[in-house]
Input
Amino acid sequence: MADVTLTDFYTRVLRELKVVPPNGTANAEDRQQVIDIYPHIHDLLLERDLIDFGVADSVPSRFVIPLSKITAYQLTSEFSVSEIMLSLLKSEGELDASPISKGERQLRKLMQRPYVESIVSNQYF
Output
């Protein structure tokens, strides 16, 4: 799967919030809300080593789902979201939650170093 452009990513975030229908397009005002908050969220995640790409770069496909959920949760106060939707987005996209949200867990897993098996020889004295 190819990387996702920022424009498409912003639309995905608005779909998470149910502001844009599945095949619809976002209006300029709604998209601007996402554009305004995205650099802040990107910086937070970069500081925590949860992502490894630039703020102006396309979003790597493996990061799209968790990042869109985290971004959507951060925007719930800007859009009228039902209590049920708020609860769902919170469990999927809240940062520094206890227990850790699904989105943050996915980002942590994506950024883990791969396990490298090596044999260690014993030294006897």
In short: The mean pLDDT is 90.
